[in-house]
Amino acid sequence: MENKEPATKEVIYSETINLDGSEDTKPELDTLKRLEEENHSLQIAMHKVEEETNVLREMFAKTNEELGNLRKPALLVAEVSLVLGKEAVIRLPNGNKFYCNVAKEIENLKVEDSVLVDQKSLNIVQKVNLGKDLEVEKFVIMDKPKETWAEIGGLKKEIMEMKEVIELPLKKPHLFEKVGISPPKGVLLYGPPGTGKTLLAKAAANSTDATFIEVVGSELVQKFIGEGAKLVKEIFNLARAKKPAIIFICLFCL
Ligand SMILES: Nc1ncnc2c1ncn2[C@@H]1O[C@H](COP(=O)(O)OP(=O)(O)OP(=O)(O)O)[C@@H](O)[C@H]1O
Ligand SMILES: [Mg+2]
């Protein structure tokens, strides 16, 4: 740096500056220091911007995915009525039936399975488990009643009839087999509110050690055709699983 040319100082590189701390290099040193500081803060700023870009990119990807999901047409929920290999007959909630294709990846499709179908083509896209086994339990009250015949005041004739029609076939089914008659499957109890209809049914369940399954009749009237019938079927399946059982359908309960 002895023979330096002072005339042209257009570009100054840090290597070309003699950093011996002498008086004439002081301005350059100051400039360098300032530039280095600037460089440092610019690097920090760039780092921050890069981080922000990443966050924004992630947000964009998420929003884009969400938007894609929102734009997808909704799928209909239907029930399989008949399986014919890679085709099937489905029943929509409004009761209409359609013959449609089944997506390749769906295996073990069975009658009564719930499936998702495309709105336009009505082809089966996916099998879904709507937890229908649990659904029936939402509509019934299951109980092991404690009420006894002895607690009932009066109603002698009704108690006797209940014993004959409900208790006897459950306790002594062989008597009916012997005579060759099939026992009655149910009774209709009617009368003003609070006169012991539910009480009689509960006492019958207790004396036969049966599961008491209480159903509110209006629950059986479902919004869609066929749903109520399905519910009745499921209630009887439940009763079969919990046998012996008494299904008590209350027609005018609140
Ligand atoms: N004959 C009776 N002996 C003893 N208790 C009774 C008798 N009748 C009704 N009760 C009592 O009255 C209350 C209502 O009876 P219960 O629920 O059996 O009436 P219900 O006929 O089923 O009425 P609803 O038509 O409103 O369903 C119960 O607490 C029950 O114990
Ligand atoms: Mg009642």
What can you tell me about this protein's structure?
- With 254 residues, the protein is α+β, with helices and mostly antiparallel strands.
- The protein has three domains: 14-71; 76-130, OB fold (Dihydrolipoamide Acetyltransferase, E2P), CATH 2.40.50.140; 133-250, P-loop containing nucleotide triphosphate hydrolases (Rossmann fold, 3-Layer(aba) Sandwich), CATH 3.40.50.300.
- The chain is built from six helices and eight strands.
- The protein has a five-stranded antiparallel sheet with strand order 3-2-1-4-5, with no helix packed on it.
- The longest helix is centred in the N-terminal third of the chain and has 46 residues, at 26-71.
- The chain is elongated and about 130 Å long.
- The chain starts with 25 loop residues before the first helix and ends with a strand.
- Bound molecules: adenosine-5'-triphosphate and magnesium ion (MG).
- The site of magnesium ion has 3 residues, from helix 5.
